[in-house]
Specification:
Layout lengths: L9 H17 L4 H27 L3 H27 L5 H31 L1
């Protein structure tokens, strides 16, 4: 079975799309909003994909799985900051719903990927 490249992994592609959407939005906010909620939100959404990438580059399954857990933590951190952005009227409710849907869609896929790595670890 050929090894899938990082760029072909669905959760990685979704994480990149989410991060890029947020960059487009946050880059238009006021400096104060960018410096408070914006920077943390961008770091959190970027960290989802960054930790998937780091997991891909790790040799041992334990390390791979740990970085996927970090990615999942960043996904939940992102949800927190998305809620802050809505509460502080930095985004519309429609955009909030779109972005929360994206994160909600990614979460079970990330969990399934973690589970697959755990299975590979058991079978190794």
């Amino acid at each position: 079975m050929p090894i899938q490249s990082l760029e072909e992994i669905e959760i990685y592609k979704l994480a990149e799309e989410i991060a890029d959407k947020w960059w487009g939005i946050v880059s238009r906010w006021s400096p104060f909003a960018q410096d408070t909620v914006g920077k943390q939100l961008i770091r959190a959404v970027d960290s989802i994909g960054a930790n998937i990438a780091e997991s891909y580059g790790r040799y041992h399954f334990g390390e791979k799985i740990n970085h996927l857990y970090y990615s999942r933590g960043s996904l939940y951190e992102s949800k927190f900051f998305v809620r802050r952005a809505l509460k502080r009227k930095l985004i519309t409710e429609a955009f909030f719903n779109e972005m929360m849907n994206d994160l909600q869609m990614l979460a079970p896929k990330l969990n399934a990927y973690i589970k697959s790595k755990k299975m590979q670890k058991q079978n190794a």
